Amino acid sequence: MKFVDEAYIDIAAGDGGNGCVSFRHEKYKEFGGPNGGDGGRGGHVFAVADPNLNTLVDFRYSRRHEARRGEHGMGSDMFGAAGDDIVLKMPVGTIITDAETGEVLYELLAPGEMITIAKGGDGGFGNLRFKSAINRAPRQKTPGWPGERKSLKLELKVLADVGLLGMPNAGKSTLIAAISNARPKIADYPFTTLHPNLGVVRVGPEQSFVVADIPGLIEGASEGAGLGHLFLRHLQRTRLLLHIVDIAPFDEGVDPVAQAKAIVAELKKYDQSLHDKPRWLVLNKLDMIQQDQRAALIKDFVKRYKFKGPVFEISALTREGCESLIKAIYLHVKTQQVAEQAPAEVDPRFAESSDS
Q: Where does the pLDDT of residue 226 fall: very low under 50, low under 70, confident under 90, or very high at 90 and above?
């Protein structure tokens, strides 16, 4: 399926139905009085976060969405029926922005969350509403109110706890396949990954976290080189970045330290807040290095790179070092989740008794 993480749509809520002017006409009821009903409300447009969706591709080919208008009022005190609402299903993590002003209107962050993105117009009043002691035969009515109309931009930022960062062919897809249920395409050529992949990592019973793999970055990505810059937004909601480095590149002229520094520089150019996120260094492809040469090679890399954070040595292909990595990730993510939870509010009436 084609991956789409950006789309533009036009929505229109339903107009309200018009009010009705009508009078009772019955035998032996010469002055029956007004009985014109109100018009019905126009249909609303709702957006709901559907956890079964992971792309906005449906909105790429279906841009116009209109709810039905309310029915007009009728005689015999009959009010018009409300127009049918429409519900637009969107992936969790969708940001809804006004396409004209750029203002962020809504964010769908929780599965099943439903919001009203366009309200239907109210129905008009029939002449029954205008009846009074001094106006017994009113001929006034009001038209229905128009429904809201908007041009919206939809942008998807996947919700993941951990994001994988690195050059093409650093082994990101191999790692996410080794530790999670994701099955991305893996091949021996650059830019195998063309769109983000999400995988759920099971650490233990009721213990898991979500990993996001995006296309590899190259130098100049912040200016549009390569593919990774198109998907860096998907790392903005992660709690931790894993910088995957190919410690044993096939080309002997390639310096892994220079590549690693280039990636961090592109990250800083793109978004300072993304650069400031917690970032761990993961040195991959240990299976390509002789056992007696690993320690010296890793020590030299860390010294030249001048990295102060946590460093992990793994082989995604053989799963060497992966277990300790995912346990450390889970502890970090869990700690952040607990820290982000707001403390329960204490009723001031019981605050003193709880302190004592």
A: very low
CB 140 within 8 A of CB 130: yes
Q: For strand 279-284 and strand 311-313, is the pairing parallel, antiparallel, or unpaired?
A: parallel
Confirm if 184 and 169 have CB atoms less than 8 A apart.
no
Residues 6+ apart with CB under 8 A from 132: 138
Structure tokens at 297: 């090679």
Q: How many CB atoms within 10 Å of residue 166?
A: 25
Residue with tokens 């205008």: 130
Q: pLDDT tens digits for 274-307?
A: 888 888 888 888 888 888 888 888 888 888 888 8
At 73 the three-state DSSP class reads coil
Residue 57 is predicted with a pLDDT of 81
Measured distance CA(102)–CA(247) in Å, rounded = 42
Look-up of token digits 């009001």: 142
Query: Rounded to an integer, what distance in angstroms lies between the CA atom of residue 243 and that of residue 12?
Result: 44
Judge contact between 147 and 122, C-beta under 8 A.
Answer: no
Decide if pLDDT at 352 tops 70: no
